[in-house]
Amino acid sequence: MQTHILGFPRIGANREHKRLLEAYWRGQATRQDLLDMGQELRRRHWTIQAKAGLTHVTTGDFSLYDHVLDTSLMLGAIPERFLTTDQPDLDTYFCMARGDAERNVPALDMTKWFNTNYHYMVPEISAAPLKSGSQTIVRDTLQALDLGCSAKPVLLGPITYLSLAKGVKGFDPWNKLDEVLNRYTHVLDKLRPLCSWIQIDEPILCADMSPAARAAFPHAYKILNQAGAKLLLTTYFDALDDNMDLALTSGCAGLHTDLTRGARALDSILKGLPREMTLSVGIVDGRNIWKTDLDRALRTLDIVHAGLGADRIMLASSCSLLHTPVDLELETALPKELKGWMAFAVQKCAELRLLARAMNGEDCAAELEANAISMRSRRQSPQVTIAAVRERCARVDEKMTRRNAPYPARKNAQSWLGLPLLPTTTIGSFPQTPEIRKQRSLFRNGDITTQDYEASMRDEINKVVGIQEDLGLDVLVHGEAERNDMVEYFGQQLDGFCFTANGWVQSYGSRCVKPPIIHGDIDRPMPMTVKWITYAQSLTKKTMKGMLTGPVTIMCWSFVRDDMERAEVCRQLALAIRQEVTDLEKAGIRIIQIDEAAFSEGMPIKSRDKGAYLEWAVENFRLATSGVADSTQIHSHMCYSEFNDIVQSIAAMDADVISIESSRSGMELLEAFREYSYPNEIGPGIYDIHSPRVPSVEEMENLLGRALEFIPKERLWVNPDCGLKTRDWPETLASLRNMVEAARRVRASLS
C-alpha cells in the first residue's frame, strides 16, 4: 500500500524557521539566508519522510509565513496597496502578512484555519486582473526529485481558497473563478510530468459550503481534470456528509478522507467510491500527539481492504502534520510512561509505514505488541483518574452556572468602580522582553534562586504599572511577565497536565506555541495568580484587572486527552478556574478577565453540530465565572473570530464586558452585535497588535466613531485587539499613547 502524509511541520525541530525569519525582519539576516534556510528545512523534511519509508514525500507544504498567502501569490491575487514594483517579491509577501509601518499599509486580515489554532491570511479578491503568479511549488518539487524522492505536490484547492476569500468593495470572489482556474491549470501543467500524484486540498467539503461554492465545484474540477494530472482530492477536519456527492463525482483519481474526525462517513464512501478512484485513508491523527491504536486502526483498514483491495488504498495522516510537534525523541525530560503514549510528526510517519507493512502481510508482531502495551498502560495508569475530581464534577448544578443578578443590576452594583465614559484598558500582557525571557531561562535552569526570580518579576510589574499610570489608562493589568504562555502557565499549576521542552507548533508566521498535554483528570492544588495580581494592585490606587485563561481556551490550546468527551474535560477546567476566580475576589481583585480567545475555534465546522458545542462551552464559562458577587466585574476576551453565528451564545456567557478583535476588519465584525442588540459592554479592539505599525490618533478616533454606530457610548470600552506580549516597547508605548488620546478626544466630543 502507498503511504504519505498531507504535510509536515514547517518550523524546524529547533524552531529554525522562527529564529531566522525574525532575524530577517530585524535586518540581521539576508534574503539569501532566508531562502537557504527554507531549502535546508524542506530537504530535511523530505529526508525524514523518505527514511520513514513513505512512498511519497510532500512538496509545497513549506511556507515562509502561511500557505494560504502562498496561494494568493501563486495566483497573483495581490491587492494594489502592497505593490511597490511590477514583480512581487519577499517584501511584497511580508507586507501582505504584516503590513508596512513606514508606508502605513495595513496587512491582510488574519483568522483561524477552520477549527484549529493555526491562523491564515484572508485573501482579498477585487475586480482588478490577477497579477503575475509565483511558481515556487514547481521549484520545490524539482528539488525533491533531485534528492531521489517520489514527490507529491500539495495545492490549496480553488473552491476552498475562494470560500475563504473576501471580496473588495462588494466584489464577489466567485466572479474570479475562471481566471483563478486558469492559473491552477497552468501550475498543474508544470507539475503533471514531474509526479504521479498531485494533492489538492479542499477541506471546505467537510464544512458548510455556500450555494456558490457547491455550484462552482463541478465546473472547477471538470476544468482541473482536463489538465491530465492525477489529482488526489483531499478533505479533512470532519466527514464529507452533505458534500460527499461532489467529492465522489469530482473526476479526480483519488479521494482522501479523515477517519480520525470523519469515520462516520466511511461506509457511505466505500459504497459510493467510483471503481477508478483510489481512497487515501487518513488513519493517523494529524492534530494530536497520542500514539495511534494500531490494533483499532488495522481493524478499520481491514474493512477498507475488503471493500476496495490493496491497490486502491493509500495510507495517510488525517490532515497535515503542521498541527503537531516535530520529533518526540527531543523530549528527554518527559516521564517515560507518558512519553510512551505519544507520537509527534516523525513518529507518525513511522506509524504509517508500520501499518502498511502489517497490511502487506509482513511480520510486525513485536512492534504491534509494543503498541498494545502502550495502549494498556495509558488506560490503566493511576495518573489518568482522580476520584475527587470526578465527584466534584458530578455535584455541579444549574445554580452554579448563573450569576446572582442580571446584567443591569450588576451594572449598578459595579458603579463603585467610578470609571469614565469609554474606559481604557489593555487585554493583559505587555512585551516579553529579552531580559524577561533571560530571567525565566535562568530560573528554569536553576541558575538563580526562586527569591531572585520573583524579585525580577516584581520589578517588571512595578515598571508596567508605572507605565500604565503615566499613559493614563483607566483599568490596569500586571503585564503577565511571569507567564511563559497564557495556557502553559496555568497547566503547569494544575494536576493532569504534562509539558514538553520542544513540542512547538506554528500558530501564524513566526509565532509558535508549545501546547500543554492534558493526560489525566484536572485539579487545582493551590492559587495560581493571586500573589502576582494582588502585588500589582498594592502599587496603584487604580483598579487592577485579574487575568485568567478560560476553560474552553485552555482545552482548545492544549493537546487534549482523547479518552474522554471534550465537554467533560472542559468542565474539570471550569471548576479549577472557578476556584481561582473566587480566590482573586477574596483577595480584593474586583475586575477579573477570563480570556476565551479560542471560544469560536473550538466549534465543529458544520453548523448542525455547533449547537451542542456552544451549549456546553457557554455553560462551562459560566461555571467558571458565576461564583462572585454582583459588584465584581467579569470580563472576557475573544480574538480572530467570526461572531455573526455565535453572538447569541456570547451574550449567553453573560460576561459584564467582552473585548474582541475588530481593527483589521474596520469594525465590520460589530455588525452582528448591532443586529442582535448585544446587551452588555463591549471593547472592540482599535489597533492591530499583530502588525508593527503604529496607528495614528486619527485612525483610532475613526474606529471609535465607527464603533459608536454599533455600541451605545455607556457600554463601549477602548482597548487593543489582543495582548501585547509579542510587540516591542517603543511601538507599544506609541500605540497606547495614541489610543488613550483617541479615547480622550472622543470622550470630550461626546460630553
From TrEMBL:
InterPro entries the record matches: Cbl-indep_Met_Synth_N (IPR013215), Cobalamin-indep_Met_synthase (IPR006276), Met_Synth_C/arc (IPR002629), UROD/MetE-like_sf (IPR038071)
GO molecular function, one term: 5-methyltetrahydropteroyltriglutamate-homocysteine S-methyltransferase activity
Location of the active site: H690
Pathway(s) this gene product operates in, as recorded in its UniProt entry: Amino-acid biosynthesis; L-methionine biosynthesis via de novo pathway; L-methionine from L-homocysteine (MetE route): step 1/1
Cofactors required: Zn(2+)
GO BP: methylation
EC numbers: 2.1.1.14
SUPFAM superfamilies in alphabetical order: UROD/MetE-like
Domain Cobalamin-independent methionine synthase MetE C-terminal/archaeal: 422-744
Role played: Catalyzes the transfer of a methyl group from 5-methyltetrahydrofolate to homocysteine resulting in methionine formation.
Name under which the protein is recorded: 5-methyltetrahydropteroyltriglutamate--homocysteine methyltransferase
Source organism of this protein record: Desulfomicrobium macestii
Gene that this polypeptide is encoded by: metE
